[in-house]
């Protein structure tokens, strides 16, 4: 970890591989500063890792990076112990939070952190970039909450990219809050809601039998992607109802297996 007038720089690295005994080993589990990592009890062959926030942030000027790779045959589940809160800092300027996930053929990675909350006065740019090989499995959930209770949000820009063998089949960006393009809170985008989330599920069997597009309630939809995956996008008035919607969507997809 490094710090100074330009903000804190911190990186967490996770590498998973089969342990030869039917489970998953973690030869790399390194985190510093605000990105502490803890291995917790998993189920079956899965290795489970929790991001444990050791400091506030990200604050203005900070740059956090999480890198995780699942080798062939590994099963890795990554969560977080609490919500991440983007806050204004003494250093003016944008904070960054970059997530880089790599999933090999025959591996599975589940990225299921708690919500990201954009507090008033903050300015955060989040990127999530996933590289998959054929036969990889992915469950990825992202949830953004615009403002804490009874406050206006900060500026939040979120970009999500998923690639299969180097070719993108999902690339989307959403910018909300002060300074965002006009209409972000209008009926064509968030429609006044303060919680927005997406769930990406990639499975090899979806290449031949993808779920059909459909609405999942009034403010959620399932969309097949141009690859072996689906995207669920949801809006809600608060984080609790957003989580319920995305959890129900994942259960529906799991029932197909």
Automatic annotation (TrEMBL):
Oligomeric form and interacting partners: UreD, UreF and UreG form a complex that acts as a GTP-hydrolysis-dependent molecular chaperone, activating the urease apoprotein by helping to assemble the nickel containing metallocenter of UreC. The UreE protein probably delivers the nickel.
Keywords: Chaperone, Cytoplasm, Nickel insertion
Any matching Pfam family: UreD
Record-linked HAMAP family: UreD
Major localisation: cytoplasm
Organism name: Streptomyces montanus
Stated family: Belongs to the UreD family.
Protein name, UniProt field: Urease accessory protein UreD
Gene Ontology CC: cytoplasm
Compartments in which it is found: Cytoplasm
Function: Required for maturation of urease via the functional incorporation of the urease nickel metallocenter.
Superkingdom as given in the UniProt entry: Bacteria
One term of GO molecular function: nickel cation binding
């Amino acid at each position: 970890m490094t710090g100074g007038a330009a903000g804190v720089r911190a990186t967490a690295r996770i590498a998973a591989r089969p342990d030869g005994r039917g489970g998953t080993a973690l030869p790399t589990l390194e985190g510093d500063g605000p990105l502490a990592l803890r291995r917790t009890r998993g189920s079956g062959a899965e290795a489970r890792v929790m991001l444990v926030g050791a400091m506030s942030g990200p604050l203005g000027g900070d740059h956090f990076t999480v890198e995780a790779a699942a080798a062939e045959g590994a099963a890795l589940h990554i969560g977080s112990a609490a919500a991440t809160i983007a806050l204004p800092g003494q250093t003016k300027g944008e904070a960054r939070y970059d997530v880089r996930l790599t999933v090999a053929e025959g591996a599975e990675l589940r990225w299921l952190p708690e919500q990201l909350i954009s507090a008033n006065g903050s300015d955060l740019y989040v990127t999530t970039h996933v590289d998959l090989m054929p036969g990889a499995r992915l469950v990825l959930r992202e949830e953004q909450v615009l403002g804490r209770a009874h406050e206006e949000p900060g500026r939040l820009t979120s970009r999500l990219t998923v690639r299969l063998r180097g070719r993108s089949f999902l690339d989307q960006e959403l910018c909300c809050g002060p300074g965002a393009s006009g209409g972000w809170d209008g009926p064509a985008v968030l429609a006044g809601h303060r919680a927005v989330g997406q769930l990406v599920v990639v499975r090899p069997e979806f290449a031949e039998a993808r779920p059909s597009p459909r609405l999942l309630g009034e403010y959620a939809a399932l969309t097949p992607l141009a690859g072996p995956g689906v995207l669920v996008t949801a809006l809600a008035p608060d984080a609790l109802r957003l989580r319920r919607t995305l959890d129900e969507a994942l259960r529906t997809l799991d029932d197909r297996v």
